[in-house]
Amino acid sequence: MKILITGGAGFIGSNLVKAMLQHPQIDKVRVLDNFATGFKKNLEPFLANPSFEFIEGDIRKLEDCLNACKGMDAVCHQAALGSVPRSINDPLQTHDVNVNGFVNMLDAARINNIKRFVYASSSSVYGDLTESPKVETKVGKVLSPYASTKMTNELYAESYAKCYGMTICGFRYFNVFGPNQDPNGPYAAVIPLFIKSALTHSSPTINGDGTITRDFTPVTNVVNINISGLLTELVGAKHYVFNVACGNTTNLNDIWKLIKDLTNSGAEAIHGPQRPGDILFSLADINHAKQLLNYEPESDLHKEMVNTIEWYKLNIANS
Ligand SMILES: NC(=O)c1ccc[n+]([C@@H]2O[C@H](COP(=O)([O-])OP(=O)(O)OC[C@H]3O[C@@H](n4cnc5c(N)ncnc54)[C@H](O)[C@@H]3O)[C@@H](O)[C@H]2O)c1
Predict the structure, then answer these.
(1) Predicted confidence band at 87 (pLDDT cuts at 50, 70, 90)?
(2) Which domain holds residue 125?
(3) What is the pLDDT of residue 252?
């Protein structure tokens, strides 16, 4: 199978490239990325591999999407502008990449007769829904422009599956962490920020009182489910949506304590204001993915955090 990964220079995308190049059923991996938030260094380990190809391009340009889809059997669409605060600061840019870019990719796949398309949605689509755990069939009202873009992706995926006979899987990722996640810049995610603070003995800011909870998931789970979504036989051309998480919940104070203990850091957290647009409590029901895609998440947060911290220790000086 020949797979196009968009956003392959980013955190999740580069972990996907690594795993797919080692997979016996995948003989070619092509990446489309414009390095908006991704890095050349994430692709360097693959450049000499004859099964790997890189195309520098922008999903906002249909021509780049058409070119990247040529000769591919399936699309794994990860490219987007992440971060709720970024979307609140610049909703138009987030819309342009996350919605216009998304529809370009769907249409480029359609025009190239590609029938399997998997993509990154987000737990943000659950918005203000208070019910817990979150089940795929029920969402709330969105709380940010970022969440609106991911919700819109799901609507377009639904219509493309129905109108053009495509099999499409949307994965609602819940706070992913692991190697290659960027700890720098104003929109860095909480785990890389905490690890960087711990390793540099500087105080991290916890937004709010630290009791907001997340279903943190190691990137290996995201990688495995994307590959299952690409390779599993699914009945009928349809749009499927799956939660991708561990089915456990941890609050921010506890995740900071775990990181602090594992790094023997003397840094002390300070508390800042709650961020607008943030969901307060997040916990996934993962039974749908277990049933249809044989999803068996690695949920040992402690073990995965140890591995992740090791990666940051080796890489933080260069990041
Ligand atoms: N990391 C998480 O916890 C999380 C949670 C929910 C959903 N997601 C989604 O997963 C996907 C991957 O996220 P990530 O954490 O790896 O982010 P990332 O920023 O590390 O990766 C995104 C990649 O997309 C590329 N990209 C951005 N705009 C582009 C454009 N116009 N054309 C081509 N490439 C472009 C970037 O350069 C980058 O390499 C995104 O769709 C994100 O919304 C991530």
Answers:
(1) very high
(2) 2-179+216-247+283-299
(3) 97
